[in-house]
Amino acid sequence: MNVFADAEEWSGPAFELFGADHRRMLTLIVLLEVLLLKRGRSAGPAARRRRRRLLASGLVAQELSYHAWRARTGTWRVDEMLPLHLCSASVWLGAAMLWTGSHRLYQWVYFAGISGAAVALATPDVGRFGAPHYRFWQFFASHGLILTAPLWMTFVEGARPAPRSLPRAVGTTAALAAAVFAANGRLGSNYMFLNGKAATPSVLDALPPWPRYLPLMAAGIAGLFAALYAPWALADARARRRAP
Hints:
- The chain is mostly helical.
- Helix content is 67%, strand content 0%.
- The protein contains 8 helices and no strands.
- It has helices spanning 20-41, 45-72, 78-81, 86-100, 103-122, 134-155, 165-187, 213-242.
């Protein structure tokens, strides 16, 4: 069995949504996140910096390996492999955030990285590649690390969304979507699933056909961002009530 085969040559098991392998990977990611963040919090400043940069390097390395695999199998295409999906943009910005410790990049990666990775992990876009194919492992490594990046900055480095970060993150994402929609028109692509639903099962399947699902998708993203900011808004409200 060739674990680096393309879709036509892959003879192993197909990916099954919420099947045993999917559930095991979600459980493993949660356990690793808890362990990593716990150990990070107990480390000193120099060790935290080294681990943060190791995570950044891991994000970049797995992404480059994916590009190399697509090139090797003759499936690298400009209409699929540019960093114009929410998660692929989060890979590069998340890596830059971790490497530099940038709180400015964090203000967007916190919202886009957590929400994008969570949705992707729940409904993986891995085609028919089940375990033990390379793409199966790479997908979960990629999105697990995308999720780790803002969680590390939050729970280990002490970063938090600024009071005005929510509208800014929503506005930045809307501007990115507008630019990506224009790029899709020129490239014949479907980045951010703005020109059609995903080919594999996703949350978009519960929405009306294109283009009627677009405003609902936008509202859903804004809702996820708002839910991610809610704990901080509540904490700020409690702090104001306790203030003399």
